Amino acid sequence: MDAVVGNSFYFDFEVRLMEALQGILGEKGAVLLSQLSALGETLIFIMILGFLYWGVDKKAGIKVGTELMFALCLNPMVKNIANRRRPYFDNTNVKCIRPVEKDADIYDIAAQGFSFPSGHSTNSVVVYGGIARCYKNKLIRALGVVLPVLVGLSRIIAGVHYPTDVLCGWALGLVVILIVPVIFDKVGDEKRWLVFLILSVISLLGGFYCKTDDYFTGLGMMLGFSVAVEIEERFIKFESTNRPLEIGLRLVLGAAIFSAITSLLKLPFPAEVLNRGDFLAHLIRVLRYFIASVVSMGLYPACFKKMSGLFNK
Predict the structure, then answer these.
(1) Which long-range contacts (CB under 8 A, 24 or more apart) does 283-286 make?
(2) Is 117 helix (H, G, I), strand (E, B) or coil?
(3) Dihedral sign of CA atoms 139, 170, 77, 2 in order
(4) Do the beta carbons of residue 155 and residue 75 sit within 8 Å?
(5) How much is the average pLDDT of 37-55?
(6) Of the four, 17, 150, 269, 303, which is 20 to 30 A from 58 by CA?
C-alpha cells in the first residue's frame, strides 16, 4: 500500500476546532490530555473483558466481549469504505500527538488505519456502555457515559480524528450495544452459537475489501472468541469468583498468555513479511489473534479449578 492514500473530506470548522484546542492547551497540555486515549485502547478493553469473563461475571463478560469483538471488525469495515485520511495528513497545523502505531510511519495508513469513524470512540461506547447496560449501579452507568466522552475528546486533541469521526464512532457503538443484545434475546443462550455465526459471517465480509491491520486483528479475535466461548461452555464450565487475589491471578496469567502467544507467533516470520500488507500478512495476523483468543479464553480457564484450590486451603 502506498504511504499516503485514501479520501480527504472534512468541514472547515473541524480543522479550526482542532487547531484551537491544540493551540490553547499547548504541547504539554495536549500531550497530557491525549493520554486519555488509553482508556479506549484494545489492551485496556482486553483487561476489562478479562476481569469480567475470567473473574467476577462470566455471563456479562460473554455479552460485552461479543459486542466488543463485533465492534473491532465493524468499525474498520466502515473505515475501509469511507477511506478517510487522518486530519494531520491534509492539515499541517494539526499535529499528530498520539499515533495509533507508535513504531510505524505516521503516514502509513496500513498501520495507522483510516480516520472515519473513530475506533476508540466506538469501542469505548461498546465496552463502558455495554457494562452499564449489564448493571443497575448509578456510578457504573455514569461512567458508561463520561468515559466514552473523554476518550472521544482525547482523540480530537491528539490530532488523529476529526470531530465527525468521533460523533459517528459514538453512534456506531450505540448501534452495536442496542442491536447485539436484541439478537441474543431472540436466539437465547441455548443457540448462542447462532449469534456468533451471524456476527462472524457479517465480520468476514470485510475480508473482501479491507486493507488495514486493525480489521484483521479484530477478525482474528472475533472468530477466536466465538470458538473459545463454545469450547468453554461445552467442556470446561468454569465458575466466576469474587475473591480479589484469585481474580488478579486469573487476569495476570490470562493477559500474559494472550500477549505471549501473539508475540511468539510472529517469530517464524521476517518483519518484511508481517508488514507488507498482502494476503499472507493479513492471514498471519488473523491466525495469531485467533489462536491467542482460543487459548486464553477457551482453554486457559481449564486451570481455574486447580487455581481455586490454592485459595481454599
Answers:
(1) 285/213, 285/216, 285/217, 285/220, 286/216, 286/219, 286/220, 286/223
(2) coil
(3) negative
(4) no
(5) 92
(6) 150
Cell of 19: 487547531
Q: At 270, list the grid cell.
A: 521476517
Find cell 465458575 and name the residue.
239
215-261 pLDDT tens trace: 999 999 999 999 999 999 999 999 999 999 999 999 999 999 999 99
Mean pLDDT across the stretch 17-39? 92
Question: What span, in angstroms and rounded, lies between the C-alpha atoms of 45 and 48?
Answer: 5
The DSSP bridge partners found for residue 84 are: 7
Amino acid (1-letter code) at residue 229: V
Helices (H), the chain: 12-34, 42-50, 58-82, 87-90, 109-112, 119-124, 130-134, 138-157, 163-187, 192-204, 213-231, 244-264, 271-275, 279-293, 304-312
Residue 310 φ/ψ, nearest 5 degrees = -65, -30
Say what the pTM is.
0.90
